[in-house]
Amino acid sequence: MSRRWWVDVGAWVGVALPAVGVDRVGLNEPRSVGLEVAGLGALAVAVGIWRRYPLGAFVVVAGLGLALAPSLFTVSYGGALALFALLMGRRAERVRPAVIAFAGIAIVGTAKIAVRGVDPVVEWLVLMGTLLFGAVFPWLAGRYWRQGRELAAAGWARAGHLEREQRIVADRARLRERARIAQDMHDSLGHELSLIAVRAGALQVAADLPDPHRAAVADLRAAASDATDRLHEIIGLLREDGDEAAPLAPAGETVAELVERAAGSGLPVRYIAEGDATRPESTGTESERTVHRVVQEALTNAARHAPGAPVTVESARDAVTGTTVVTVTNGPAEEPAAPAPGGGSGIAGLKARLCDLGGTLDAGPHGDGFRVVARLPAGHTTPAPAPAPGGAVISYARRRTALAFGAAVATGVLLVGGAFAWYAYSRSHSVLEPADYARLRVGQPQDAAERLLPDRAASDPPKERAPSPPPAGADCRYYRASGELFVTVEHFRVCFEGGAVVEKSVIPKAGARDKALEEEKEWVR
Known about the structure:
The protein is an alpha+beta fold. It is built from 14 helices and 8 strands. It has helices at 3-25, 33-49, 54-68, 78-91, 96-116, 120-204, 211-238, 255-264, 286-305, 345-356, 389-428, 434-439, 446-450, 512-524; strands at residues 269-275, 311-317, 324-330, 360-366, 369-376, 475-480, 491-497, 500-507. α2 packs antiparallel against α3 and α6 packs antiparallel against α11 (389-428). It is rod-shaped, with a radius of gyration of 49 Å. The chain starts with a helix and ends with a helix.
């Protein structure tokens, strides 16, 4: 047998025990065997359908409670009512059917109380309290349980999604780093190859160089230029458009040292520092690395596209705003240079990088030469990503649920407290002491008898347990023999007719009559 079958059997046993046991211990009015069997059958139906029809199972149990007591408060089916309300909140997705069911139960119970007409205020308060605490609260607990499981499932799904996103981001970061390293190799090696070509060009025009050596140097210069072009093509395959990152400068090398090294290789370049740029530079920040990268790219392009042209590097830093402006200008080439394939990607990548850092890069013809102007702010901060809205939504949902639950608890406490206070008051003020009952005499005037009677009569007397029917046409009143609450007690019946007491009798508590009959039978035997 499946585990689900055993769970259903255990649930039926759990809800059936109170329905059978309370009659045996006298906590309920005695019922016939047929009514008990019908109740157990209805509970079996509710247990059998609660998974597919949780609302139907709850309605079946609520109907049992209303059939037994208009106020819905029964010891026999109270536990079953709360259990199936909890399961309805746990399994039912929609809220409206449950609210309609609660409203229907309240209307039916109110109608029965009005028709019955016995202490309607107390009965209605008990109905509302039982419906609230025995049905609505368990249903809310089931809804909270369901919501918690759904939130947990959504949390795990979100965690899986974030984990996949992290893997994608990590892969993306590796690709970007690979492209950055490739670009760094291209810029560094391209710059060095360009300087080799410049040195070879200077050696080629030396007057005392023999012609065979001059031809070898020319071949060396052409090979360096071809190697630069091939390097550009190969690295271009590894770089992603739009993902240009500022490569790292050689360790410890400043812009001034870069210009000095290029001049030492034969490139006609001079460096001019103005303002705050004359102070020692820090090569550890991203801004300084970007400035180094701009100058390096500009010198490389000048050596490749305008060999022999004078180059001027100007650097200025505003002491107030901290903005750095770097200008690299070269004049016309002394001799025409062959067009380099795939050119321009380095400048385009630098434009994108400086834009990310909040700066600008302008590059274009200037007179007979070319000029590159880069402006870079002092610092750059990346805005922190906005927090995911899921936490705020969950917090709002939990806060709203807590407020609704708190309001329901407060309302329920008022209802139940008021009902209990009225119940205790009505029961305690309808007690006829046995001594006063003994002083009553048949034929005693009604005025004298009423002085011995309490202020109130019992609102719900057990007339069905009376040993004999009341006298026809008499005004009968019922009183409790004890002030005990929530237990069955003896009642007194006092009947008046024609201004005098015509009958007084004792109504035994639930189960006492059957016990007396059993003792009488045993004595006869």
